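Thread amino acids onto this structure.
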């Protein structure tokens, strides 16, 4: 297996949403809906949310480095084991099992195409600024260049600088360089938060999407969110029957969700998806779009 086609939402995760009422001769499929609603399409989990070499690290004269892809695959396997053996059976999680769920949620928030594109935009802006500065320096006389001093921003951290080539690499392949450090930085905080699994027996149940892990803070309308905020909530559907939520509030390990709360959770998935959301049934409710 050359691992050329790499999923930003794992097919093993999406398999929980396969329609159990499919005809016997059909391969397993989920229902995929455009962000603004519209007609659902049957799609096999292996055929959606994937891109060639999405996580591949290109090494000069050494071909393709698949260490990130393999690391994520190992995490997916451990998470799927916890989901099937513990969460879906409504059993308490051990400390180690909670950590694997938290690690998977940390990865799922930042490993998606939507997040990749946001990082590309940020680093692309930095690259344009750096290239513009370099062009100005190149146009200076040697004497003027010696006199030049880069501006110092008050309060700016003085750390190792990046070359233009390093910034260009970050703008082209941000996840390959940033994702492991992001997960390593967020995981200790997520693991200290309280984990509650919301449950439902509704036939449609929880939706998921192409960007399934959502950060929400009712006190922050604009600007970056912080996991240290006491009102932050990190949620991710586990299956049509379960949704994991990390927060600082003390809650029971498992808690049944009412139908209005379920609609609100699905509304959040719809609002935060990139292009489309996923369900186990060919069904849409108007409450998800209000």
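Threaded sequence (290 positions):
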């Amino acid at each position: 297996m050359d691992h050329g086609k790499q999923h930003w939402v794992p097919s093993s995760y999406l398999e929980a949403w396969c329609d159990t009422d499919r005809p016997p001769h059909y391969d397993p499929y989920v229902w995929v809906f455009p962000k603004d609603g519209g007609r659902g399409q049957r799609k096999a989990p292996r055929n959606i949310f994937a891109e060639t070499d999405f996580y591949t690290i290109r090494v000069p004269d050494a071909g393709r480095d698949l260490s990130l892809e393999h690391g994520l695959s190992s995490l997916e396997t451990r998470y799927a084991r916890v989901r099937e053996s513990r969460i879906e059976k409504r059993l308490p999680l051990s400390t180690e099992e909670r950590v694997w769920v938290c690690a998977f949620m940390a990865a799922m928030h930042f490993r998606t195409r939507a997040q990749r594109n946001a990082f590309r935009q940020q680093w692309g802006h930095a690259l344009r600024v750096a290239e513009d500065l370099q062009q100005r320096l190149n146009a200076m006389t040697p004497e003027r260049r010696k006199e030049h001093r880069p501006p110092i921003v008050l309060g700016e951290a003085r750390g190792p600088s990046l070359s233009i080539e390093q910034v260009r690499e970050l703008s082209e392949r941000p996840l390959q360089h940033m994702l492991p450090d992001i997960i390593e930085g967020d995981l200790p905080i997520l693991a200290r938060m309280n984990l509650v699994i919301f449950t439902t027996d509704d036939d449609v149940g929880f939706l998921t999407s192409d960007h399934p892990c959502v950060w929400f803070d009712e006190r922050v309308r604009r600007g970056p969110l912080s996991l240290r905020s006491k009102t932050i909530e990190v949620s991710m559907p586990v299956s049509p029957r379960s949704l994991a939520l990390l927060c600082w509030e003390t809650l029971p390990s498992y808690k049944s969700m009412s139908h209005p709360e379920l609609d609100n959770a699905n509304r959040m998935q719809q609002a935060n998806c990139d292009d489309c959301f996923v369900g186990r049934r060919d069904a849409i409710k108007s409450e998800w779009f209000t």
